[in-house]
Amino acid sequence: YNFGGDQSAAMAAMAASTSLARKYSAFNGMNVELDASGFPSDGRNLKGATIQSFAPLDSLYNRKCGEVIDVVTDPAVVTNAVNTMIGTMDFIFAQPALVGSTYDNYFGPAEAATNRSKYSFVAENGIKAVKVCAKCANFKRMVKPEYQDKYAEICEGYGADGTVSALALIPIKKNGRILRGALEGAITYRGIQSFTYDAPSSKWPSSGLAGTPPDNSFFRETDYLQTMMIAGSGKVAVMPDGIGFGESGSCFKGAYIKELYKAATVPVYLATKQYIGKDTNCRSELTDTLAVSAYSEGGYASVVIADVLTSLGFSVTNINAGSLAHNVMTFVSAASGQIISDTVSLQFAWAVPIAIATFSSTVPGIANYGDLDQSLSNREGRLRLIQFVVASLFIPDLRALTIFTFGFTGTGAGEVTTFLNPEVEKVVGEGGTICNNEKLDKLCLALSQNNVAQMVMDAPVPVSLCHSPYDELIPFLSQYPDGMPLPNSEFLISDFGTLTPPASGVPANNFYGHGASKANCDLAYAFDVIDTESPSLSMSGQCKRRGKRGN
């Protein structure tokens, strides 16, 4: 399926756009090899493909495994970076209704400047940013013997046979050395992405925190805000790149499949543990006590990660899952309805195609894989989804790419060819869900097997939910039709203060939707992790000192 020539004009327009961080001329002669059944070779998007511009992009974005990306010894620089990031969030702090009851300990219900002035975070230490990498099988020995069989199951998941990567933010003293002793950990996770190089280990600014201008796009991404705050408070924060990103960029991207998050996360946490042990000559140790905290796709990942770590004997202190799509079937059904009506939020235009592509025989190992009649998309639409995912390797302006590829206008007035399976379109168009159509039994099973409600109910600590009633990407009522949280969970934020629901539904200028809520939730979650009193930690003694002195 060749998609080079017919998109050259659109790609040239994107390359000329001032909104792009870098200019590309990547779309020349790109091909994706499909086998006789129409599947990408080996289930991956780059195997056997002719992609002329991968190497230049790789040199621009990818760091080497083990590379120390940044060393910030002065805590004041971390504090300033966090507050600079907060300073870009005028759309949040200018909304008293959003802020008034949400942060009663941190913000008052006043103007934006006053709210920001009450922001109370001050870093206690510097941070060291490192790209860590891992092959799953190589870290089995770091798990206690009684859990090694369970760990081996993780290494059988899609993408686990290759190398995965992460950004690790490690707390350091002013002399540049890692804090001594037993260190508590945290795993954060980004929201849904498609651009291959939107990986945390690639995204950290090459100029470092001290040299990055406030208008850099990095400072508009609250994924990193939470991660920096946690590391600046003395805990090790690990942010996986995810399968299909960073070192695993040759894998087909997917979302809301449990196995993807296990394979992307557990090995890199162990690799970070190994790195700290070696760097300090065993004078410091990343312990098995940690928090898990994220939003959107990351909120889903948080529940899965907490579950698998608990099964491996780790002690999870916090599980924060913002905008959680715990019922994948109802989320995907709602997304399909948005496609049919052309009301896909243009702010998150790329997210829906990624979710649809995941359940369209692109990621092996799920119940409907290999049966195109049970695909979420139709056959032509599936090829366009494959095109979109591979194109996302090259084009960071995903909103423009999505509009071009699928024709979304977000107004409900466009004439969009839905690219959905006709059986999906039929049942969802009639107001039902995918599982209401018996012809879609395998697709229903694939979606239902990746629901995480039971994981929430079985979690070792109550799960903190944070979900706006005006979330346009993961509609609140698609997950909580009765307005109540799941057992063993609680709403941190589900209603923003004095906000009165508008008569017509979501406000036209939605300050209360998925994006604005993410910033609120990430901030609240960061404080939650920071303020949780650490248990008494001790070093396990697994790490064996070398003869020479460590840093």
How does the SSE layout of this entry go?
Layout: H1 8-16, H2 54-61, E1 68-72, H3 75-87, H4 90-93, H5 96-99, H6 112-117, E2 126-135, H7 148-154, E3 163-172, E4 181-189, H8 200-203, H9 208-211, H10 222-232, E5 236-240, H11 258-279, E6 284-295, H12 297-311, E7 315-322, H13 328-341, H14 351-358, H15 379-391, H16 398-406, H17 422-429, H18 441-448, H19 453-458, E8 463-466, H20 476-479, E9 489-493, H21 514-531
Parallel strand pairs: 4-5, 4-6, 6-7, 7-8, 8-9
Antiparallel strand pairs: 1-2, 2-3, 3-5
Helix pairs in contact: 3-10, 10-21, 11-12, 13-17, 14-15
Structure description:
The structure is a single chain. With 551 residues, this protein is of the alpha/beta class. Helices cover 35% and strands 12% of the residues. The protein is built from 21 helices and 9 strands. Strands 1-2-3-5-4-6-7-8-9 form a 9-stranded mixed sheet, sandwiched between helices. Strand 6, helix 12 (297-311) and strand 7 form a beta-alpha-beta unit. The longest helix is centred in the middle third of the chain and has 22 residues, at 258-279. The protein starts with 7 loop residues before the first helix and ends in a 20-residue tail after the last helix. Mean pLDDT is 79; it is low at 1-56, 90-112 and 496-509.
Short characterization:
The protein has 551 residues and is α/β, with parallel strands linked by helices. It has helices at residues 8-16, 54-61, 75-87, 90-93, 96-99, 112-117, 148-154, 200-203, 208-211, 222-232, 258-279, 297-311, 328-341, 351-358, 379-391, 398-406, 422-429, 441-448, 453-458, 476-479, 514-531, and strands spanning 68-72, 126-135, 163-172, 181-189, 236-240, 284-295, 315-322, 463-466, 489-493.
